[in-house]
Amino acid sequence: MPIVTAGFLLALGYQARFRWARMLTEPWVATALIVLAAGSVALGTQLAAYTDGPLAALTGIVPQVACLVVLGLILAALYHTAQAT
Question: What angle do CA 5, 10, 34 make, to 5 degrees?
Answer without folding.
Answer: 45
